[in-house]
Amino acid sequence: MCRDVTTVQQWNIAQMVKYLGSHQLCVLFAEVYGLLPKSRLCAIHKTQMALHKRHQVGYFKCSRGNCRTKSLISRAAGTWFEGVKISFPHVFYLMYCFAHRFTREGIYRENYVSVEKKLSSATITDWYSYCREAVVIFQLDHQEFKGEIGGPGKVVQIDESKFGKRKYNKGNNNNLYIYNAIMFIQILFFFSGRRVEGHWVLGMIEDGSEDLRLEVCPENVRSAEVLIPLIRKHVHEGTTIRTDFWRAYECLPEYGYNHEKVNHSDPGNPFVAEDGTHTQRIESHWRVVKRLFYKDNYNNPANFADVIVEFLWRREIQKKHTDPFIALLGVIKYVRLT
């Protein structure tokens, strides 16, 4: 198993059954991927502790001096598996389901682990939250490592969009065309004065780059006091920034940016200014982003910002053609080792 499992590049349910269908297989798998430690130093003697592979995952014990009478240290301590109350096969199965965005119905339908004991709704929610929290830590750390986008001679398009369901259409799941023509709808609703409940999100992307940045506007406010710090967090000074005519952007030149604008209320051409300035690239991304929220956590204020970060992670692994389950294993390993 140890040799074969490392060659798997695309995971499916059949492979989950083959490699992760029992507790013993899961423990071996966790060892191979570095999710369970094979060694541990004694905090007192600074020497290797003995590993005893008994009980659920095994335990470490130091046999020197007073350590002989001390409690055993579970190999799961400080790992992803510490304190788990479900079986290891179920842990990996729920990780797989999160990675592949299974709905609750899909989780129940594909569950190969146990046909007798059904996973509770609370357990599914908890494990999806654990996975998302790890993804958020990983993604934000790596985004900070990449640094700012833009710079002198480069162009960054910026736009805000509101995520949420329209009051008059609440609960209607058949109007997908709304999301496929989101920019037209936004303009239409701006002039009609209809309200959209939800969350304002600021989007930024550099021309010629796929490095998309998204920030949820604190307190759902998109004033200059809110937007400018978010822009400065992500965009180098000296960058040419293209936006619409929203007044919060008027002070961008005061912070070292070149500012170009397109007037979306221009009846002649609301999408491209006479000099060619446009924000169509960032605007086109809103449709893609909102598809993620159509069914999952679309209007949930408790975890909305986390799901935005999750989208960025999923977008990056998709562009790299990385299997989502393998990518999630890397996330868990990173989070537990940092």
From TrEMBL:
Superkingdom in the source lineage: Eukaryota
Residue spans crossing the bilayer: 176-193
ISXO2-like transposase domain mapped to chain residues: 148-316
UniProtKB keywords: Membrane, Transmembrane, Transmembrane helix
Pfam families the record matches: DDE_Tnp_IS1595
This protein's name: Uncharacterized protein LOC125778249
Organism: Bactrocera dorsalis
This protein's encoding gene: LOC125778249
